[in-house]
Amino acid sequence: MGDISQKHQIRGMLRLAAQTWVARMVTAILNFGTVIVLSRGLGAPDRGVCAFYAVVIAIALVFSDMAGGATMAWLMKTMSWKQLRIIGFSWSFIASGLVCGIIWLLGKASLNVVLILWLACVLNSGINLHTQILLGFRHLKAYNLLIVFPALGILVFIFPLFHAGFRSTNGYLIALVTSWGLSLLVGMVAVRHFAYEARPPMTYKQIITKAFSSGGVNQAGHIAGMLNNRLVFYLLPATALGVFSNSLSLAEAMLLVPGSIGQVYYSSMAGSAPSEARLAYFKKMQAVNFAILLFGYVVICILPASFYPWLFGPGFLQVKQMLLVLGAGAVFYGLYLLNSYYQSSNGRFVLNLLATCCGLVFNVLGS
Quick one: pLDDT at residue 210? Predict the structure, then answer.
């Protein structure tokens, strides 16, 4: 009976993971479509500027998520999601402002662009906050919808803006803010409809202490990973980032599989006691994850170098050369990524931090 129950549990989890993978794949295709539109419409230099904006927003999210963030599903087992949301919103406004302020002080963008980026960072943080709440309540259909909607909105809005004379990096920012603003409203409606308050309120001091302790450790790991993957965006001029950014986007598409399996596993198992049964079917899912990642890398190796200039336009011939290295790294990182979800479900966020810090040290020494 135990083996039958475990098989049903594995199949159910893989089915949900497949649904999440489809949502992530659709999102990736939409984001890839945006990359193509920007590459063809703006060219490699301005495409690199847009990539720089995206990195700024991603870094702001890393710091915003220190107030719970990706640990929300684990925190919601014992704390009020409403109180966690208030803390998350408040902190995201401060953290995003600090990140964008540093960008302005460094002279990386004008004041008008920085203010728009600040708004985009807050909106992005709010969307992520609501996806984590939905994940904590295991409403994966609403969670998947909220993943797809922002990417769809950017692609929908960017076409009329480009045709209306906003064929520039500013047009991209306007499309981004409009889409994310609407997506945040969708997230707020979804949470209001699906969520319920299952935990009694605690003092804000207690919640802030716990949210920042767990979220801080988790995000410290993300910061180390961000330095591993994104430091080059600050070392190279923005106009030289177009080719590298497109190569990295393709390599990171391989991580949809471990991300999908991991999200479902974390949503289902966060806060539950570790057991041999859990570890056994986690190992089986890791084997499936490795097989799919390896297949993805084989596809990268087979595609000719001439495919990428045909796809992105002139100036992107070196994508294949970069992608061979980045794709191999994505295979190993995908194995770590799924394992990090297992550790997070047990509340062992510090282990993920140690792993990424080791990777960062190795990366710095190797360079």
Answer: 79
